[in-house]
Structure formats: C-alpha cells, structure tokens
Please model this.
Amino acid sequence: MENLNKFCGSKFQIWNNEKHSFPICFETIVFVIAPFTLLAATSAYFIGRLRPPDVNLRIPDVFNMRRMCTGLTLVLTIAILTKDVILIKSSMSAVLIISYCARITSLLLHLIFLWRLGMIHFDYKRGPGVVTFSWLLTFPYYIVEMERIITLYIFDVYNSKDDIFYISLTVDLFCVAAMVACQFTYLVTIVRKNPKFRTVSILSPDSSFDESQSAVYQNGVDGYCDVTAEDMTSHAQLQECPEEQAGCLSKLFFCWVQPLMKKGAKKLLNKESSVYHLPQDLNTELLSNKLTSNRQTTSNNSYEYSRLESTKTGKPTHTVLRSLHQSFGWKYYSLGFLKLGSDLLAFAGPVLLNQLVKFVESNDPIAYGCYYAAGLFASSFVGSLFSTHFDYQVNKVALRMKTSLITSIYNKTMISKPVSLSRYTTGEITNFMSTDVNRIVNFCPSFHQFWSLPIQVAITLVLLYMQVGIVFLAGLGLTLIMILFNRYLAKKMGEYNRDMMKHKDDRVKLMTEILLGIRVVKFNAWEELLSGKINQIRSKEMKSLKGLKYFDAGCVYLWATTPVLITLLTFSIYSVTGHQLTAAQVFTVVALINMLIFPLNAFPWVINGLMEAWTSLERLEDFLSLPDQHLDHYFNIQSSQNTGEIVKIDSGCFSWNLPPDDARGMEDQYEDKDQMLKNLNISIKEGELVGVMGCVGSGKSSLLSAISGGMERVDGSIYVGCYDDGMAVVTQEPWLQHATIRENILWGSKHDSAFYEQVIQCCALKEDFAVLPNGDLTEVGENGVTLSGGQKARISLARAVYQRKRLYLLDDPLSAVDQHVAAQLFHECIHGVLGGTTRILCTHHTKYLKHADHIIVMEGGKVAKHGTPSQILDFDKIEDQSYSSKETNSEATESGVEQKSLITNEEKAVGTVALHVYKSYWLAIGGCLAFTILLFVVLMQASKVISDWWLSQWVGSVPTNGTHGNHHENSNYFIFPLALSDAHYTFLLQDNEPTPANHDVMWYLMIYGIIAGSNSIFTLIRAFSFAYGGLRAAKVMHHKLLTAIMKAPISFFDTTPLGRIINRFSSDLYTIDDSLPFMLNIFLAQLASVIGTIIITCYGLPYFALLLLPLAVCYYYTQHYYRLTSRELKRLSSISLSPIYAHFTESLLGVSTIRAFQQVKSFRSYNIDLVDRNQRCNYSTLCAQKWLGIRLQMMGVVMVTGVAFTAVIEHRFQFIAPGLVGLALSYALSVTGGLSGVITSFTETEKHMVAVERQAYYINNVPQERDMGTNSNQQWPQEGAIEFNQVNLKYRPNLPLALENVEFKIAPGEKIGIVGRTGSGKSSLFLVLFGIVPTTGGAVYIDKVNIKKIPFRKLRSEMAIIPQDPFLFSGSLRDNLNPTNLTIDDEKLWWALESCGLRTIGEQMGGLGSEVGERGQRLSSGQRQLLCLARALLRNVKIVCLDEATANIDQESDQKIQETIVKHFARCTVITIAHRIDSVMRSDRVIVMDNGHVIEIVDPRNLLKQPQSVFAQLANQSGMRTETM
Model:
C-alpha cells in the first residue's frame, strides 16, 4: 500500500467519501493507463499485420477525419504535458508521468495504425473490431476529465488567488474541450460505415481500352482510382479532384490548390478544361437528379419533378424548400458547429485584450503577458481555420444547390405541359436560371448568420456589461433603435427589390424578342421605337433600384457611424456619472463595439437576403409546380390494338389553353377565346400518306400539334402507336441548332454514309453542299439565321428523314422552296425515301395531294371533309406535275456570310483588367462625383481614427490608481460583473450623488463629440453620393450598350449567339446595377480601414513596423499571385455561362421538336455538360478564394500575435503607455479579417469589373451601321421610282459576288415580280434596297436620290416589307398592327384585318386588345404572315416589298390577298419575291435572277411565250400550264 501511495503521490483510495467521487489516482489507473495501454498494444499489433499495396489510393474522408482527430488529440496532449512541466515542475507524481507516457504512446501508435489502415480501407467497413473496441474503452476518460475540470473551474478557481492555477486550469479546459470534440467526431466516423469495395489498379495504359475505360486511366502510368457503386453511374465521376486525394494538412491549409494557382500564374488558364474537375459531392450528373430522386410517383417519366406539385387550392406548397432540405440539409446544418466555434473564438480577442492592457498597467511577471499573447495567437489561429472552412463548405453546398436548381429548371421546361409552359416567356425563365437561382443560393450563408448574429449581439452586450456595468444599457437602447430601424430599411428594400425584379423580367423578355426579330426591326427602322420601350421599362427598373440603393445607403451610414455614436454615448454617461476610464476598459469597449456593429449592420442584409430568397423561391416554386406532360395519360394506348392503325382520334377536343383546374386563374382571360380543335374523329393506318388541307387558321398545324402532344386534350381519346419511340416533326418555321449542317441532320444518330447520301439527295441539298465553303460541315448560325428559308426547311426535313421514324408530321415544308424544288422534295423524299412510313402532310399545294391515300379538310377547328383524293379534289383544277429527277438545284447561302468560322469564340481578355475599363466606369459615374466619393471615404476613415486616438489621449491624461497589487482582484470583475458592492458600482445602490465630472472630462467629451459629429456628416455624404454614383453609372452603361447593339449591322447578329448578348443585358447588367457598387463600396471602406489600422498600430507600437515590412512584402506577392488566377477564373466563369443561356434559349424555341423526336434525354445531358463546365470554373474560383483566404488569415494571426508580443516586450522596458497599447490592439484585432477583406473585396471588385469590361467591349467594338445620310427631305419619296445602277455586293472580302453588275429601273407605281432559284440573289436585292448591307460598287437610287445620302431611319421607314419569316412581339393585336403608336382608329384596324381575312380570328381571340402570345404563338404561321401584311396596309408608303409574304397560306386566300394588294397598293411600287409563279403573273414585269445576275426583265406573259426563256422553264418545272397562266 505504501508503494501505491508513493506511486500516486498521495493516499491511494478507490472511493473518496468526502467528495463522493473516484480519487484522481484510481481514475488515472482505471480510465487512463489501462485502456490506453490496451489501445497501444492492439494498434501496434495491427501495424505489423496490415500490408498496404504499393500504390497511391484516394483515402475516404472518414479515415482522414479519424487521422485528423487522433493527430489533434496527440498535439493537445503534448501541449498539456508541456504546460504542466513548466508550471508544476517537480511536483508531478509518478502516476501522472506514466499516464502521459501511456496516452502519448498509444495515440502515436494509433495514428500510425490509422495511416496504414487508410491505405487498405477497401477491406474494412470500420477497421479491425478489436482496435475499435480498445478505442471505445478510452472514450470515458475524456468525459470524466471534462467533468472534473468544469467542476474545478466552477467551484475552486474563484476561491483561489493563485494566478498560475487559474491559467493552468483555463488551458486545460480549452484543450480538453477540443479533445472531447475530436473524440465525438471520431465516434461519428465509426458509426457511419465505409462502403467496402475493391480498388481498380491500372499499372500501364492499354491500347485496347475503350473510351469509358480510358476515363479511368487519367493520371499516367501510376494512376489509380477506386470505383464504388456510385462511381459506376458515369465515367465522368472517375476523374479525380485533387481535393479528394489531399492529406489532412493539405486540406486544412488548401495546399492542394497550389497547382491551380501555378497554372494561373503561368497564364495557362485559357479554357474550361484547364480547371479542376468537380469532386464527387459536386458531380453534376448526380446533383441533376438530386431533387427528383425521392418520392417518384410515375415511373414512365424519369425526369418528372414529382414533388413539386400544388395543392388543390392552386397555392404553392413550398416543396422546393423541403426538397432542398432533404437533399442537402444534414451537411448544411452541421456546418453550424463550425460557425458557432468561429464566433465564440472571436470573443477571445476582446477578453484577452482586456487582460493584456491590464498587464501593461501593472507590474506582473512577463510570463502573464506571454500567456495572454499566446492566447491571442491560439484563438485567432483556430478561429481563422474555423471561419475559412465554414465559408468553404457553405459555398460548396451553395454550388450543389445551384447545380440542382438549374438542371431542375431545364428539365422542367422539357417535361411540362406545353400549354402550361406558354404562361412564361423566354426572358422570365432565363431570369429563373440566373437571378432567382443566385438569390436562393445566397440563402446558404444568410441562414447561419440569421441565428448566429443574435448570439454575437447577446455575448457582446454581456461583455460590455462586464466592463461598464449598467451604463451598457445606453448602448443597448441605441442598439435596439438601430435594429428596429434596420428592420424597416430591410422591409422597404425587399419591396423595391421585388418591383425591380418584375421590371427586370419585362426588360429581358422584350430584349430577347427584339434580338430574335432583329431583321424585322432593322427592315422597319424600329430601333428607336423599341429602344424607347426598353428605356421606359428600364426607367421603372431604375426607379426601384434607386429606392433600393438609397435605403442601402442608409444602412451603410448606420453601419459606419453607429460605432462612434455608441462609443460617445457610453463613455459620456460613464464619465459624467463619476467613473474613471482606464485604458483596459476603453479599448476593450471599443473592440466590443466594433464587433457589435457587424451583426447590427449585417442583420438587415441577412433578413433582406432571406426575403429575396423567399421571393425567388416562390417564383421558382410556381414554375416548378407546373403540371408535367404524361404521354401515357395523353395518348390512350387501349384505343387501338391489332387494327393496323397508327393514329386514331375518337371525339377528340384539344385546346391551346389549360383546363380550369390547372389554369391557376388564367381561364377567365381566354374563356370563349380559344382556337380549339373540336369533335375530331380520325383514323390513320400505318404506311399511309394523308394530306391535310384548309384555309389559313383552320387548324391544320394545330392538328399536327395535337397528334404530337403539343396541345391539351380536353375530351375524347387519342392513340399514337409510336409515341414512346418518338415521331418526326417538320414545322412551318424550321428550328435548327447552332452546329454544323451535318450535326443538325444526324442529330445524335450514328453516321451511315450510304443513307446520309440518300437523304441529302432526296432533300435537294447536294448542290448547296457543293457551293458552301465547308460543305455539310459548314456551321449554321443561331436558329439558322445565315441560311435562306428554303435551306432551313430542307435541312429540317433531312433531319426528320434521317431519324427513321414510323410517323412523320410535315407542316407545309414545300411552301418555303421553289416549286421545282418542292416537286423534287415530294417525289424523291416524301413519296420516295419515306414511302412505307406514315406521313401526314399539311400543304396548300393541292397538286401533290392526288398521290395521298386520303385527305382531311380542316375548317374552324373541325374536320369538314374526310375522304380519298377523288372524293375531295377537283382534278380539273389541279395542274399537272411534270417532274424530272434530272433537274438540278443550284443552292447557295443567301446571305453569303463566311462559313469557315461563322460563330467566333466569345471574346476573353487576358491578364489584369485594363485601365481603360476602370476609366469607362469612372466616366460613367462622372469624374467630379467619383473624386468627391473618394474624398469623403478618406475623411470618414480619418475622423474615425482620430476619434479613437483622442480616446487614447483621454485615458492617458487620467492618473492611474498607483498600486498594481490589486490587478488580479480587479480582473475578477470581468468574470463577476454582478458584484455591485465594488466601489465602481456602489453609487447605483446608494442615495449619495455621483462624483461630478471635472473640467478635463467635459473638455475631452466636447472634442470627442465634435469629432464624432464630423464623422457622421462625412459618412452620410459618402453613403448617398456613392449610391447616386452607382445609379448614374448603371444608367449610362445600359444606355450605351443598348445604343451599340441597336446600331449594330445584321452581320453582327448572324455571327453572335443570342445567349451571349442576353448575358450582357441580364447577369452582366445586374452586376453593374447592384453587385459592383456594393462590392466597390466595401473595398474602399476596408482599404481605408486597413490603412488606418496600420498607421495607428505603428503609431502606438513603433517597433511593430519591423514586422510589418516582411508582412507587407508577403501580402503583396500573395495577392498578386492570387489575382493572376482569380481574374482568369472569373472570365472563364462568365464565358462558360453564356453557352448555358444560349442552349437554354435554343431549347425553349425548339422544345416541341425536341419532345416529338424523344430527344429530351440527349438535350438534358448536353445541358448537364454545360452546367458542369461552368461549375468547374465556379468551384475552382471558390478553391482559389479559400487558398487566398487562409493565407491572409494567417498573416492576420501573425500581425495580432506580433502586436501582442511587441506590447509585452516594450512593457518589459517600461516605456509604453497603456492607452497606446489598447489602441493598437483594438485595431489589430480587426486586421485578421481586414487583410482578407481588402484583397477579397478588391478581387471581387475586379471580377465584377469584368462585367464592365464585357459591356465596354460591346460598346466600343461592336461594328456600327455607317449612316452617312444627310438628306432628311420630309417629302421624299413622292413617286417610288427605283434604279439599280451597276450594283455589286460581296458579303465578305474572300467570298464571290452575291450581286454582280445588277442594273434595272422600276417606274413609279410599277408592280415587279422577282423569281429565281434559291440563292440566286433575290433577297440580296432587298438587303441592298433597305441599306441592310453596304454595296461594294454601284448605286441605288429612289426618286433619283442615292440612298447612301438618306439616313437609314428615313430610308427604311419610307418603305414597307412583309418578310418570309413573320415575327410578332408579345402584346396585343393593336400593338402589333400599330407598333409605332400612330393615331389610327379601331375601324381602320378592323378594316386591315378584314382585308387580310383575319377579322374572324381577331374577334374569336377577344378583339384588338387580346394578347397574341410570345412571338405570336397564339396565331398560326400563315396568320402571322397575314398580320404582317395587315400592318403594311396601314402604312402610307410609296414602296412595298413582299418576300414570300403568302408562302404559308392556301391558294384561295393567296388570290384574295393578291387582289387586296393590287387594289390597296395601286399607286405604290410593289416588288414581290415569290416561289409560286402564279403570284407574280399579275406583275407588270418580272425580274429573273440567276447567280447574282439579272438575266431577264420583261412582262411575264411575254416570257411565257418564249419556251427558251428561263422564266418559262421555271414555270414548266413548277407544273403550271401556259393556258392557266
């Protein structure tokens, strides 16, 4: 027993009856030595047993977490031992020494064991069971030790005046708490099983690998990758991310990002593939299905957003929020522990500052000062790690959410009912993907701040109370007032924000429509008109933005001036009530107030961010809750079986609008105004050719849409036997992708050379390919804008033929081509290659329908007749078709745009944002205003620094209380502030009057008040001038950009994707409106703050300048190194974002075609690929930011530590004032975040300046139409005479002439027809006449005036054109008939509609005020053409041009329209381009074009009498009889 007593250092007992607990010695033997010895033995045993392979493997996170926890526990144990050796020295007992040895040895061995275990993790789910059991036996020790230290801290520390005991116990408390946290984390990794799998090892590349296998082999000869069950979902997942292979320290300090930073420094980040692959938890393919993976209700629709349904009341059920919660909630919420730890450690700064300043005021041993300085180092170091990794992980969750939401929005557009999708415009849905998703993603940091900020405020107020007692209530009162006022500001900002988003949606929607119809805009000289409409919407948007920014300025003012006001109020009351200020009190309070301001300022922003996120969430909820289209419900699969029928409709009623249950309040708007298909009874057998006839608006196109699933089935049943395999659709308005012609035809199918040649031959494309620069590899512009209408129609038809479907829905593909080409298409393609398939052909060319098996005649949405050709057609009126397969088709690119590199890569500047970009923004703000803003930023910060300096002078003038022996006793007031019996607080409990303030106190207060008032005024001016400057810049930049785009030539739009331009008007403009001023404001404030901090720190502690110099050098090179990478990543992010918008817009335009062909899956995959590229850039940007952040945080830690130790060392030599120490330390505490904030805000500002750079590029570099006209004679033209004099036209210098020596004259009022094969130069004549493209030689005269002398607006507005591709804007019938808002009464508008056969349609729609839908979707293609004609009838012009204006209407309607044109335009010069020869037979003369030359210009009747004439040959090829002519 005596040996045991010696061993324990005291009497050995098993139970202590006095304390009712186990004695320390017994606890040590049982809970420490025994279990840790067992853990050491088992770990050592398995170290020898485990044989890791000689390969490099990616180690799962759970094993890395165990390593990190064990390593940290080992370090903390050694730290406690070191502390005990220094403080306890010889008094350590044997049992304590042995326990330390056992713990350190076992932890070291266990760490080695875990290191080896991680290398063969695939053999274990948790690890060897005996080691796991041994570790579990050590777990109680940490719990017992934590309980013991807390008990001592609560009951013994305040009864002891031994400071060494207090310091020792405090260190033990922090270290043991950290070890307990590590052990709980370790326990979690054990509870969570690791998937058990084998490793695929690749020792050498194998040439026999297929493409998917080669994706595994990516790291060269020594590359390895572990493949789990999840990994097999996509070969893209096998591509490793460096983060997944990094070790603990590398992850802790982001060392694994270094290769990316080196790439950026070497300027190798020039494309998306240069950046990191996404880690497994950010895999786009997996996340794309994240929100749809649960509660799938229908197995037939794998992309259904099943959870996003609405209640029966039609109100959103907020299932998007629940889906996000279920998908990402667990990991996201757990990050709150990091946030809490970071916030709590931040308060260690003011506490230790207080102790350190008291130390400087006292004569305590220097060891105390070192402890406080070391405490500052430890708290700032660990807090920096916590905050950096919290930000990193939260942003990773945000990236995951963003991926899921963007792909969900895209998927929804692909699967929702077409009639419900039509409720939203392209601009609105684009805003969902850009602005709304970003706002929801911004919820991630806002939520954690929402619960964290009140905790920070509460702790700060408690600490303030500990310093100044009840006086803190003054600051609390002002704080409460500020919170209420900030709440009001946040509410108003939310209201303005919602209004701004609404106007932004309208503006982007209109801008999208303008860009889609830019040719119509140019031909009609509507640039100024539509610019005015855009500017009207922009003015409303700017009004909301102005309110938002001015309220924001109020927040900025409160944020900047509140610290000074609270400090003034607190110290004034404290001094006036008779208290004496000390340096420790003053600067602890200053530090605490500075900490208080951030949550007070941030809270309204957090609330505003949450409100914005909620608003966007509701908008997105409404969209994602649109009903999905279930084809198995739409098509009745039981209606026809074993009857040979492929299409059958029984009593079918179809609508373009939602039924009342789904219409969500819209049914009243279109009630009784819907063009429905009613009582359809149709039966079509497989292999039949069915013709569909009818006048314009009779329902032909709607019938095809109903068969393809594009309408809402209201009643009856429909059966389509091949809907699951898809059907081929050729629409009246061909939809093509931005790709090569071959890619458009193949459309994802394998290239079959023989069949491909057959397809291009039957679709009359061979001659086109022969003259195109790159043949079928020629790139097609966006939606085929660089091709003629006939070429687009034939490529669309070729795509349909190549897909080899059973059912073909052909919506008048013959109207867009010459009649001889139409004959070839019908005989070789529709009736040739497609023979044997089921074909439903809508056409006005009745001559081809005699080959049909039966014909359907539509009238008023019903089947008027249904029978065989002999029953329906009058063969005597049908012209004979003389077709020869030997006919050739000379096709060329009508526009002549160079095809070799049609769409160039988006421009990307390299290196630093150029100075001229900053200059352009400076000038946009205004030079004088910008200088004023900078001046008041400096004055604001200078007054703030002077106010704090004055405080140091104040406390320095107050004599100290002499003795220092009571320092530690006084320090207890920080721990027990409620000890009001102390002399400082007794006046609150007694009746005697407080000590009157002396003259010096009032003097210092007066000066301090004057400085504080000046600071408030400077801050107010700075805040509102900055807001005004940002608004002015936003207005100027938008005006310049809009002007540049509207004045750009048509060639610019041919070679620039729509998404690229829309990106400038949406996300880039939003950046300039909101993000850039916000971030620039932060940068200037933080830069001034850091400069002030450095000045005041060096002033207070001059020797700190020795440390500052190397820190400054390190800081400069770190930020420079980072900026080289970050700006390139930002540019890559912007550039990779444009294709997402472009593809999304392209998909929306062709969604009906994509669905019909069952191509949704491939388009979804391509969208995922585009999102993946963009997210790789965003992820790499995030990694680079945190690489910088952790290094700047460490520099801040060095700075804080340096200031603290400098103060301790200088105090050792007794030549430093406590006030200056407090001043320097209070500023240095903020430098950790300040240094990081400056470079982060500057880098973010530079990134946002990329938006200005992109805007400035378009403003300064987009080519402009050279309008050299000066003749503005209001009476011109009076007659309409036209003369082409030796006109030459070349679209590009290296292309052949599109027009060569064209010369002819047109008399006033003459009617001219223009014919010729596609590509012969017909449309080029119109482009020259309207000044759309400049001539390379010759001149064009109108009424003997050279059109080059006429301003473009005057020239184009004095002529009318009805284009081949009709385009309408969203709005009413009245707006589209009278877009220039001329004074025209309704009777004349109705007359124009009646003249074009549209009056009945207009009445059915609901009158002139009825909406035509986006781009006129409520009207058929033929009706849209007629509406454009009606618009021309209302114009008082002398020259009218018709470019295939009646191509999409039936012949009977065409004849009536021709009569209307002849009657109404009798005194006008009319030029008509036509494929139908009979359309130009009423012309006075006809111009025959061939290969850019005028070869015939004579009366058409005379030409027909000449069989050798080209016109007569064209007429014969079209099947027209001479006698019919």
Summary: The chain has a mean pLDDT of 77. The CA atoms of residues 443 and 610 lie 6 Å apart. The radius of gyration is 40 Å. The chain is about 60% helix and 10% strand.
